Every structure is written in C-alpha cells, then in structure tokens.
Amino acid sequence: MRLPSLVFAIGIALVASRAWAEDAPQAGPYKLMQTEKVGGEGGFDYVYADADGRKLYVPRSGRPSGRVNVFDLDTLKPAGEIPNTNGVHGVAVDPASHHGFASSKPVVMFDTQTLQPIKNIDVEGSPDGILYEPATQSIYVLSHRSPNVTVIKASDGSIAGTIDLGGAPEAGASDGNGHVYIDIEDKDNVAVVDAKAMKVTAHYDLGGKGSGPAGLALDAKNHVLFAFCRNPHVAVILNAEDGKILTTLPIGNGVDAGEFNPATMEAFSSQRDGTLTVIKENSPTSFEVEQTVQTKPGAKTSTLDTKTNRIYLITAEQAPPAEGQPAPAQQGRGGRGGRTVPGSFSILVVGK
User: Fold this and answer.
1) Which one of 84, 210, 218, 257 has the lowest number of neighbouring Cβ atoms within 10 Å?
2) In angstroms, rounded to a whole number, what is the distance separating the alpha carbons of residues 177 and 74?
3) 154 exposure class (CB count in 10 Å sphere: 0-12, 13-18, 19+)
C-alpha cells in the first residue's frame, strides 16, 4: 500500500472509531438490572411508579376496551388490573386520598389500595399525559385537542376547570408550590401554569435549541427545567423562574419521558432507540451527560421509584415489517400500530 493510501485508510478508521465511541453506551454506575417479560396484548404508552403505595401501573390499550395492569413495585409480580379504561395512556395517583386516575375516556377514578373503580369522569378532548399536582391536590389530564388540560379534584373526582395552553401538551411537572410546567410539543415551548388560578402565566420558548419537546423533568429546589426534545436529540435546560436557557446536552433518539431525582441530582430521559440518558446536575448552572445506559429498543417511556432510586421502563419486541410497510419505529406510539411480537411485553429495571 502506498503511503497516501495508508494515511487515508488510517484517517477513515479514526473517524469510524470516534463515531462508534460517541454512539456507544458510556460506562457508569447505572446498568440494566432486570428484564421481566410479563406478556399481555395491546399497545402501551406511559408507565407510572407509585413509590408510596409500592405499585407499578402499566396502561395497555386494546379492543373493545383498555386496561391498566398493576404490578408489585418491588417484585414485579402481578398485583391486579383496572378494566374498562378506553384508550388509556397513563396513570396518576394522589397519595393522600389513595385515589388513582387513568387518562382514558372517560377518565377512570379508582382506589389505589383495593384497585376497585370508584367512578367514571366524562372529559372533553383526548386524554393522553397525566400528572398529580400536590399543592392543590389536583389531577392534570393533558390533551392534544382542546381543552388542553382538564383539572380534576383528587379527593372526589369532580372537575375543577380546564386550561388552554395554546398548543399540544406532552408532559408536565409540578414544583409542589403551585407552579406546573408543561412542555408544548407543537410550539416548542414550556407553559407555566398557576395551579391555584388555573391560568397560564408564561411560555418559555426553547429558542430554536430544540423542537418537539416530549419529556420534562424538574429540579424544584433549584428551579431547573429539563426539556427533552426529539429534533435535534437534545435536553434544553432552563431556569424555571425566568425561562432563561442555561445549556443544551445531547440525548438519544426518540425521547418520550423524563424524570429528575433530587436524591442523586440526576435527570433521566428514555428513548425509543434503547438508551437512557443520565444528566448530572453538578450545580444549578453546571450540567453534564454522566452516562448513556443501554436498555432495549422501544423503551421510550420511564418512571422513577424515589424510594429505591431505580428507573422502570416498558417495551415489547417488534417483528420485521410486512413487505411495503414502514418499520415499527415509524408506526404509532408505544407499540400502537406496530407488529408487536405476542407475549414479548417486558418491564425493565435500571439501577446501580
């Protein structure tokens, strides 16, 4: 081989090696500790860990109606089921009243101790994301269609009101002091809501740094927001008090959920490409990608157990697409519309 050719070949090898290193999972304290194949049919979206009640809620869509499968958070053994949750996407729990709510249509209110349904709550729009707001003891049901938020009193299931966010919400987080932050996927901003007044007080624009925010995490103590975006694949980190963009950091492809753990000062984002990005908050103005954990393809939603500091994700294996059809990753949400391998649905546990 002539010298110029040799130099060229070495250069190509170095570039390939560098690209592999950037894409490869990073070494660190977190690892995939457990994969529990629990099976069951139907689509899936958000997973929710009730750290106080020690239950894991896994909504499963299907016909003629959906259901919520419930597992013991410590053993992952089946703990029960909440039936007749049509088009369900997620679950939120009020730990004080022991009332749970499924973002179905109608919204199903249930007892978290007995798992018995309490009532159906008729709502408008298309229930999707859902969260608990502790300052007002309310449940926020998010919808891409108007009304964008339906606020339900957790104590009795009555509707307190609705909120217009000016766009399609994906995920939300409460600071526990009456402020709710909700990322607006089609407007590339974060809406700030006064929980007591049930009104939007500000929109924090992402400034072209990221679009399609799909996951949101909040460090309530230090007033830091992590908006996890799909295009490009970045976390836009903002000051929660004024919306100032602090920095951006790379994450994986296909994010759909995020969490912040105040015990470890880490934010997590889960991606469809089979990665979990761990961002370390060194200070309220200093952040770094601490680790990229390899999970499983399709595991785009996650939840944090604040008692054990473990992250739970859900996914299912996808069969090769039929001839002429798009790949499963291009179809539907959370296995909806994809060619899911029967019985392959699994719960993943990531921890140290």
Assistant:
1) 84
2) 30
3) buried
Q: What is the token pair recorded at 335?
A: 């296995």
Q: 245 has which bridge partners?
A: 238
What single string gives the DSSP state of each residue in 83-136? E--TT---EEEETTTTEEEE-SSSEEEEETTT--EEEEE--SS-EEEEEEETTT
Owner of token pair 């110029």: 4
SS3 content of the chain, % helix, strand, coil (to 5): 5, 50, 45
Q: What angle do CA 95, 99, 103 make, to 5 degrees?
A: 110
Whole-model pTM: value is 0.89
Which secondary-structure segment (H or E) carries 205? strand 199-205
Q: What is the pLDDT of residues 100-112, one digit of tens each?
A: 999 999 999 999 9
32-351: CATH architecture = 7 Propeller (2.130)
**Cα angle, residue 40 at apex, residues 49 and 315 outer, rounded to 5°:** 55
The rounded distance, in Å, linking the Cα atoms of 71 and 167 is 34
What are the b/e assignments for 87-100, b being 16+ CB within 10 Å? bbbbbbbbeeebbb
pLDDT, position 90: 98
Half-sphere exposure of residue 86: CA atoms within 13 angstroms, side-chain side: 9
Give Rg (Cα) of the chain: 21
Phi, psi of 349, rounded to the nearest 5 degrees = -125, 125
Angle at 45 between CA 44 and CA 48, to 5 degrees: 110
Q: Looking at this protein, which amino acid is placed at residue 228?
A: F
